[in-house]
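Appendix C: a fully annotated inverse folding record. The material below is reproduced so that readers can follow the format used throughout the book. The structure is listed first as tokens, followed by the designed sequence.
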């Protein structure tokens, strides 16, 4: 207790609040007390009080600078971790969604045969009553089902980010992660916060105040890939990496009101969701763009080169050394 540097904080804070001039007036009051009630300035050797003041102030200034440097480094490290995670996720998404295109060449005869097969398949479905216009098709009324389902009663509609806007925070989600934003009512430093991310539990609090969040998460998260960062001293951003990437969360923590996961808007369409023809065109365009960026031939240029190479191999008697190819 004797070595606790904060034991007089409440007393000094009360004194500071009574000095309209700020720190300068507070220091004047403390120094005036030393002058009137002690022999601080006259009881020692000449100039000794100056050395004491200098030593104390420089020691505290160094502590303040060390704390500021430490807070800055923690903030930069957290921002770097968050940026690295976001970049890795973006790279994984691109690698998963935008695989190099595969261009398969077919002859005119093969193309005609494929088209005939498609037409025959359509005709057989129409004749059997399985086509698009068949009267046997029954479209389920999802809206009616949701209204009749007692499990959906009382659930909130998801926000634009497939999460929920609550009084003290807002969370959104994708199938891969959950993003939590907590607006703070005062300017804080990272060391003023208590943020603990466990596999199935989350705690968010300002030190010395009741927790903003303290509860079990809706599902497990990857601790090593989850992080938090304080933005502008006023906004806390928490990124939680889901373990199960196949399910939507119905709530952030179990004490929150539940949202209807049936009403969640799926993520933007991926290549795998497109029909074969559209996907082929998109893949070809992306493949050609990457080839151009690397200074390599596009699929059309490669096709021409392959045709020319094949022609040259079939006619070794011809001299192409003086030919110029565009």
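Designed amino acids, in order:
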């Amino acid at each position: 207790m004797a070595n606790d540097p904060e034991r007089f904080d409440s007393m000094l804070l009360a004194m500071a609040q009574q000095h309209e001039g700020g720190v300068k007036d507070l220091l004047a009051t403390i120094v005036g007390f030393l002058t009137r009630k002690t022999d601080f300035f006259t009881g020692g050797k000449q100039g000794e009080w100056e050395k004491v003041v200098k030593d104390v102030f420089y020691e505290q200034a160094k502590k303040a600078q060390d704390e500021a440097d430490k807070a800055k480094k923690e903030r930069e490290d957290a921002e770097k971790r968050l940026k690295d995670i976001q970049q890795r996720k973006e790279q994984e998404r691109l690698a998963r969604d935008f695989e190099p295109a595969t261009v398969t060449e077919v002859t005119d005869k093969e193309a005609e045969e494929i088209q005939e097969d498609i037409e025959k398949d359509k005709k057989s479905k129409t004749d059997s009553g399985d086509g698009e216009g068949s009267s046997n098709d029954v479209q389920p009324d999802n809206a009616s089902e949701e209204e009749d389902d007692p499990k959906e009663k009382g659930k909130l509609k998801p926000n634009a980010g497939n999460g929920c806007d609550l009084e003290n925070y807002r969370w959104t989600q994708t199938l891969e992660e959950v993003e939590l934003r907590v607006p703070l009512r005062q300017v804080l430093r990272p060391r003023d916060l208590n943020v603990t991310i466990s596999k199935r539990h989350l705690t968010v609090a300002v030190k010395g105040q009741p927790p903003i969040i303290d509860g079990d998460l809706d599902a497990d998260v990857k601790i090593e890939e989850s992080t938090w960062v304080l933005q502008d001293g006023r906004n806390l951003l928490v990124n939680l990496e889901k373990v199960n990437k196949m399910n939507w969360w119905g709530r952030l923590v179990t004490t929150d009101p539940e949202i209807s996961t049936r009403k969640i808007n799926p993520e933007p369409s991926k290549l795998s969701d497109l029909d074969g023809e559209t996907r082929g065109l998109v893949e070809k365009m992306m493949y050609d763009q990457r080839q151009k960026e690397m200074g390599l031939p596009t699929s059309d240029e490669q096709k021409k080169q392959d045709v020319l190479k094949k022609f040259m191999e079939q006619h070794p008697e011809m001299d192409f050394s003086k030919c110029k190819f565009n």
